Amino acid sequence: MQFVTRPLVGLTLLCLVPLAVQAQQDGGISNEAAANMARNCFACHGPQGRSPGTIPSLHQHSADKIVALMKGFKSGDEPSTVMGRHAKGYSEPEIEAIARYIAGLNKR
Ligand code: HEC
């Protein structure tokens, strides 16, 4: 029986590798947590990041673009009125999770 189970165990472990890598990239932040944080953004940037007013929309941006802008706001390289203070409240893994969540909404 061992000759059957061994490869199965190996295969199962191999299948877990992408999951582990994914969890690491997310900094352990679940999609639900990202969705909750993104709700704060939508208060100003409109539902799903589609702003009805003068605040820029987010829905047209890629995740990478949102991350780059947020890091710029955080460091002060990107000039802002409110976003600098806002971005400082989030860690980099949180920013990346929020950005992926917002960018992912627009693929649906
Ligand atoms: C209090 C309202 C408010 C909240 C909440 C808010 N933003 Fe903003 N955001 C703004 C304003 C206003 C700007 C324009 C830059 C500035 O003046 O700070 C902006 C600009 C941006 C930009 C640049 C868009 C562009 O095209 O230039 C990004 C990206 C962004 N916000 C992401 C976020 C994310 C992600 C969140 C949630 C974590 C968030 N914002 C929460 C008001 C807000």
UniProtKB/TrEMBL annotation:
UniProt keyword list: Electron transport, Heme, Iron, Metal-binding, Signal, Transport
Residue ranges of coiled coil: none
Superkingdom classification of source: Bacteria
Signal peptide: 1-23
GO molecular function: electron transfer activity; heme binding; metal ion binding
Pfam families: Cytochrom_C
PROSITE patterns noted in UniProt: CYTC
Domain Cytochrome c: residue ranges: 22-106
Family matches, as InterPro entries: Cyt_c-like_dom, Cyt_c-like_dom_sf, Cytochrome_c_Oxidase_Subunit
Identification of the protein by name: Cytochrome C
Native species: Sulfurifustis variabilis
